[in-house]
Write a structure and sequence with these properties.
The complex is a heterodimer of chains A (154) and B (126). Chain A has 154 residues and is α+β, with helices and mostly antiparallel strands. In chain A, 55% of the residues lie in helices and 20% in strands. Chain A has helices at 2-32, 35-55, 71-81, 86-106, and strands at 57-58, 69-70, 110-115, 120-124, 134-141, 146-153. In chain A, strands 4-3-6-5 form a 4-stranded antiparallel beta sheet, covered by helices on one side. In chain A, strands 1-2 form a two-stranded antiparallel sheet. In chain A, a hairpin with a 4-residue loop joins strand 3 and strand 4 (120-124). In chain A, helix 2 packs antiparallel against helix 4. The radius of gyration of chain A is 26 Å and the shape is rod-shaped. The chains are: A alpha+beta (154), B alpha+beta (126).
């Protein structure tokens, strides 16, 4: 009789444990939904950093034959002229490096691909070595002949 | 007897669990709302989404003349992207007694006649 009661008690205890496990799993599922918001936030941050970077100014005394223009305008002009010279690529690198470094310090590995039509420029960490989730912000500049895509992996 | 004990265990565990959850919820509600702080910064011309913060010239630049409601201290640092050296610092603070909310936003900074990508770093506390 005592043995039967022990078994009943054990069964109820096991039920209690199962209940707690299920409850924990339920909470885990609820909390696992939050990365969606985090992902949205990273995408938004990437978009805003990319926008600000493209709005930065390239001044005439920095190697451009044009008056002060934004980086986006400079890239459009380069795509019309043809393949960029080394000096022009270095100027673009100088313009984008700060933003890439900032994103790498804050979020994770970052790289930028600028397709000028006549040439494709890569800046930042090597994408082939990346693992994990990759976020991207793609911008078509001008008539779409220039595409700037910023990638971020975490 | 064992059944009663088991039921008590379940009730106790569930209660503790719910109390922990509830305390977490209360804490979340007490946190400083980042979006509210951002709205305040925008309305006080300390941050512009599509415009430029000019740091050119003496006396030019954003000013921190007050604080959002319920906030006792705030520090704002403007610096170039990828460079940790501050270009401009605004500070209005009492001693921090609790959690500090820290975040940053990209923005264009105008200095020496050039507009370049920068970052606004904000630290705020109650």
């Amino acid at each position: 009789m005592a043995l039967r009661k022990d078994r009943r008690g054990m069964a109820v205890l096991v039920d209690a444990l199962i209940f707690l496990v299920v409850l924990t799993l339920l909470i885990a599922v609820i909390y696992s939904a939050s990365p969606g918001k985090m992902s949205e936030d990273r995408t938004e941050r990437l978009r805003s950093y990319h926008s600000v970077m493209l709005a930065g100014e390239v001044s005439a005394n920095e190697g451009s034959s044009m008056s002060v223009v934004t980086l986006a305008e400079y890239l459009i002009a380069l795509s019309i002229i043809g393949a960029p010279e080394e000096e022009q690529v270095l100027l673009i690198e100088k313009m984008v490096n700060g933003t890439i470094t900032e994103l790498e310090m804050t979020f994770g590995n970052t790289w930028l691909v600028i397709d000028l039509g006549s040439a494709v420029l890569h800046f930042g960490s090597d994408p082939s070595a990346e693992v994990g989730d990759v976020y991207a912000d793609r911008r078509e500049l001008g008539d779409g002949s220039v595409v700037s895509t910023m990638f971020l992996t975490v | 007897m064992e059944s009663i004990l088991a039921v008590m265990v379940v009730i106790t565990a569930s209660s503790i669990f719910l109390v922990v959850l509830a305390s977490g919820t209360v804490q979340v509600e007490e946190e400083i709302d980042q979006e509210e702080v951002m709205s305040w910064l925008i309305s006080n011309d300390l941050y512009f989404e599509d415009e430029v913060v000019s740091l050119d010239g003496p006396g030019v630049g954003p000013r921190l003349t007050g604080l959002p409601e319920g906030i006792s201290g705030m520090t704002i640092v403007y610096r170039a992207s990828g460079n940790s050296t501050p270009l401009f610092v605004l500070n209005q603070a009492e001693q921090s007694t609790g959690d500090v909310l820290a975040f940053q936003r990209p923005l264009l900074i105008e200095l020496n006649g050039t507009k370049f990508p920068g970052v606004m770093e904000v630290r705020v506390w109650r």
